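[09:14] KT: can someone run the structure on this one? pasting the chain below
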Amino acid sequence: MRTLSVSCLGLLLATTASAQEAAPALIDPTPAKGWIITLGGSLQLGPKFDGANSAGPSFMPSLSWRRVGEPAGFSAPDDSLDFALYETDRFSIGLAGGLKSGRYSSSNNRLFGLRDVPWTIEAGIFAEYWPILERLRTRAEIRQGFHGHHGVIADLSADWVERFGRFTVSGGPRLSLGTASYMRRNFGITPAESMVNGYLATYRPSGGLKSVGLASALEYTWSERWSTTLFARYDRLAKEASNSPLVRTIGQRDQFSVGVGANYSFQIGN
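[09:31] RB: done, structure tokens below
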């Protein structure tokens, strides 16, 4: 399955039944040509910036596609956008990327004097491996920042996947690491910033472990066309990130995110 995003937005499901009756089935036992396109998005409530103690909303659209007859693959809501260049039943590798929200001094008066961290495009590669097919998935992403920060971030994850009829339950541990450039841009405070701010001490972190955490998701498939998802994630900032005055003085180490979303699938070609 070629996937550009794995997040989904809660959409109006009241019209699902009539839309399904008017459209042809997506699964046909006879050989078929064409593609199944899946559109969706997610609405998430999470930290306004790394280490923040306040939350804000965000939205992420999604698009994925697969050949008719090819089963839908698994992806976690917190996976980056990706495109597989090589894949088998157990292993895949390809391109990954996404958009990271920024940090702006106007959002908190205690950030006065600190440089803004603009939104960032992060692009790189991913690799997935299923040690237990259809049950245990492991994934690694390495992404380079452009525009907002120019550091490198690595995300490692594992998900146990269980399917109960129309329900799919998944979840597992998360671990994030960042280079010195990434950590200093997001958690560091220069002497000039500290002097102007007058509240936060100077801090120059090095690279290494950023956070450890857990993520979970519950997906329900209403029909061949509609599915909805509830998801949550918890991260605990560690090491250099947790020692930042941004976290210790005006933020918090515990970072929570929750979200809801939906996908709609349809067929093109024949």
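[09:33] KT: thanks! The two ends are 18 Å apart (CA to CA).
[09:34] RB: yep, looked fine to me
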